[in-house]
Amino acid sequence: MPMELVLLPIVESAFNPYATSGANAAGIWQIIPSTGRNYGLKQTHNYDARRDVVASTTAALNMMQRLNKMFDGDWLLT
């Protein structure tokens, strides 16, 4: 994976785990609820793993790896 991916949360949320978008994306990676569920991020009234930096980063990296395979290894399309 390109090292530049470490900077993506700056653009998405300014590294704020409590950031929330108008589309209900949450956390440093701005993951929407359905994507979070697809990647195993628990979301309850008391806990939202999209705001957990470690859990959401693992999910985001897994998602990027899957997308990269789908786009035949082209990181610009990923």
UniProtKB/TrEMBL annotation:
Assigned keywords, A-Z: Cell wall biogenesis/degradation, Lyase
EC number assigned by the record: 4.2.2.n1
UniProt xrefs under Pfam families: SLT
Reaction it catalyzes: Exolytic cleavage of the (1->4)-beta-glycosidic linkage between N-acetylmuramic acid (MurNAc) and N-acetylglucosamine (GlcNAc) residues in peptidoglycan, from either the reducing or the non-reducing ends of the peptidoglycan chains, with concomitant formation of a 1,6-anhydrobond in the MurNAc residue
Record domain Transglycosylase SLT: where: 2-77
InterPro entries from the UniProt entry: Lysozyme-like_dom_sf, Transglyc_AS, Transglycosylase_SLT_dom_1
Enzyme class label: lyase
GO function term, MF aspect, one: peptidoglycan lytic transglycosylase activity
The keyword Cell wall biogenesis/degradation appears for this protein: yes
Entry's Gene Ontology cellular component terms: membrane
Stored Gene3D superfamilies: 1.10.530.10
A biological process term (GO) from this entry: cell wall organization
Family: Belongs to the transglycosylase Slt family.
Protein name: peptidoglycan lytic exotransglycosylase
Species, as recorded: uncultured Escherichia sp
Lineage: Bacteria, Pseudomonadati, Pseudomonadota, Gammaproteobacteria, Enterobacterales
